[in-house]
Amino acid sequence: MDFRLTEEQEALRESVRDFAREVVAPVIAEHYEKHTFPYEVIRQMGKMGLFGLPFSEEYGGMGGNYFTLCLALEELARVDSSVAITLEAAISLGAMPIYRFGTEEQKAQWLPKLISGEALAGFGLTEPGVGSDAGGTQTRAVLDGDEWVINGSKAFITNSGTDITTLVTVTAVTGTRPDGSKELSTIIVPSGTPGFTVAPAYSKVGWNASDTHELTFDDCRVPAGNLLGERGRGFAQFLRILDEGRIAIAALAVGLAQGCVDESLKYAWERHAFGQPIGNYQAIQFKIADMEMRAHTARLAYYDAAARMLAGEPFKRQAAIAKLHASTIAVDNAREATQIHGGYGFMNEYPVARFWRDSKILEIGEGTSEVQRMIIARDLGL
């Protein structure tokens, strides 16, 4: 096995790294502090083709694959996770369901703008009273003639309320199966549809420059043709989407963990104590060495999961391992980076303060650490 990147992959990584340092870094602290969405940054990411990385050229994509997306996410997250999660959610949760399961008509209607970054889409799965138990979905959609009538609510939905959000795909109960279980389907709801209300943005602990809202649907009517994929296959669809998304979140978490190493190395030579740089002290050296070890091993985990996915092999367990491990070490590295920075690590002017606040959600979003352990255990036959 060879985990070295190709020249093309290395070139992509370098270009995104430069973009993150030169375009994102100078402005993101202000956006984070003011809780504003970085539209100009997103626009430039669209021009670079980042929103089209894993999509075929047929729909305006870059013709790459999921691994190239992961490389971009890692480099963005080394500087800021709000921008990285905007890209991850826009692709993995926004455009990918339409790309994977949509009709040719749906793809032609929605994908070009999503892939160009001109528009964003959200994925309405989680509900206020139903988190990891997605099978407990309460939102319902009833077919009335040639329209679906949707009632219910969704929580913690990323990219759902920006000025360029164009749609949200919603999982809803559309009937009852012969065995009495719920029939779940996925339906496209365009922004601005009557009965579709976007609540004010959440006040969050982290990811302050990303967009997250609660959504409500009150007799919201959309055409019957907005059904995404086969009726009753919504549960299977979102399981596949989340399996893939866990690899992307792992890459994002690795980026945050590596960013903690970057900032700690820099600070270790800037900060002096007892007459010399703190980087000369073994206590600091060992902390940074452990941080680098964690980032490196987590990177190998998501590389492996992505390789299996692209080879068409089973990857559910490996994706769960990558997501679980990467999110855990991201929190560990953020804590250690804050400690190395001392009092300055508690100040918002230093990136590690953002890293510390942004890291925790990685153990929760797109499947909690407990869910990842459950997936791993079940795949082992337990």
From TrEMBL:
It comes from the Bacteria. Its cofactor is FAD. One of its GO terms (molecular function) is flavin adenine dinucleotide binding. Residues 123-220 form the Acyl-CoA oxidase/dehydrogenase middle domain. Keywords: FAD, Flavoprotein, Oxidoreductase. Gene3D superfamilies: Acyl-CoA dehydrogenase/oxidase, N-terminal domain, Butyryl-CoA Dehydrogenase, subunit A, domain 2, Butyryl-CoA Dehydrogenase, subunit A, domain 3. The keyword Coiled coil does not apply. Residues 232-380 form the Acyl-CoA dehydrogenase/oxidase C-terminal domain. Residues 6-118 form the Acyl-CoA dehydrogenase/oxidase N-terminal domain. Belongs to the acyl-CoA dehydrogenase family. This is Butyryl-CoA dehydrogenase. It comes from Micromonospora avicenniae.
